[in-house]
Design goal:
homodimer, 207 residues, alpha+beta, Glutathione S-transferase Yfyf (Class Pi), Chain A, domain 2, 52% helix
């Protein structure tokens, strides 16, 4: 029996990827073993459900058997477990500004995944264009906002930058026709550099 | 021009309610003015979108004009702005356990709101039973888990308890036929007491 922590994992989940990038960036990768899970909202994993009733990944089982979720809670936990510069500022207005940017990146993910379910999982005759348009509106507005915040993202590769990089990576992975770089040149330039970080390269989903 | 903070608000949003309960509990209600917003994912508010590109409430505009979102970030911010006992433990395993319980309550809300959109907003011929079943499974498993954690919820009226109370209140508000009390007697007893707190009573959505 291992006493290490277990991360319930999928290589294509952008929420898992945020955690993986933070593990890389903070030198904690060897402290966590990965346990692959395959699931959708209509095909849950009984094994995962017993650990996280919400049936979502990532979930992190600690050595004592207790389980932490969701990705934000796990990021917060892991960021308290290393001795380097915190990737979530501990206080001051920087904390809430960086967390707000991270929240906006999560909103991009939430919207993109709802679009994915609508256009891939749901039976064709039950898809609703207005729903997809509404979610895509959230993505487009968030991208505009990140374009204006590109210099801020560049200030530190922290929770805001990790979340934004994982959101942009997910858009490229699942919505390659979105062509977001055309309207967001500063964000695209930032992401080109961010994508070269070992933590981001090592966690990219296979095309 | 007011220099107070403005909370973008709806009396029926359970995410807003979490913030309102914390404002009550921490004596900060007078420091925030409320600004009502009406929206759905397919009928966004242009005013709100200009402040939170994700088009979601709550959003908190600070006196300097900057905007914080989403509800978790706002709760974290407001919990740092009062002198009482923190409602989000600052560190130690209690922090991540209470945040995990809060995350589970948010997962109940996320699922219940997706069910609401599916059964209320979406055109009838485009509704998908498997989707509703999948989301209801998350809610049922989470309720079982909260039933087992009822004693823990009772330890403090903090972020975990606030989030759980708002989730249960939303189930009663929008899914009154769920009859969750039948299978969750300890949770029901906890909620009966919690519902009598002034902060919870004052923020209950009108039936």
């Amino acid at each position: 029996m291992s006493t290490r922590q277990t991360l319930f994992f999928s290589a294509t989940s952008p929420y898992v990827r945020k955690v993986m990038v933070l593990l890389h960036e903070t030198g904690q990768l060897d402290l966590v073993q990965l346990h692959g899970i395959t699931l959708t909202p209509i095909n849950p994993s009984a094994e995962l459900n017993s650990l996280n009733p919400a049936g979502k990944i990532p979930a992190l089982q600690l050595a004592d058997g207790s389980v932490l979720h969701d990705s934000r809670v796990i990021l917060d936990y892991l960021d308290h477990q290393h001795g380097g510069t915190p990737l979530i500022p501990r206080d001051g207005m920087a904390r809430w500004r960086r967390l707000t940017l991270a929240s906006l990146a999560d909103a991009v993910l939430d919207a993109a995944i709802l679009v994915r379910y609508e256009t891939f999982l749901r039976p064709e005759d039950k898809r609703w264009d207005d729903w997809v348009l509404g979610q895509c509106g959230k993505i487009e507005r968030a991208l505009e906002s990140f374009e204006q915040a590109a210099d801020e993202l560049d200030e530190a590769f922290d929770v805001a930058a990790i979340s934004a990089a994982c959101a942009l990576g997910y858009l490229d992975f699942r919505m390659p026709d979105l062509n977001w770089r055309r309207d967001c040149p500063k964000l695209a330039a930032w992401y080109t550099v961010a994508s070269q970080r070992p933590s981001v390269k090592a966690t990219a989903p296979a095309p």
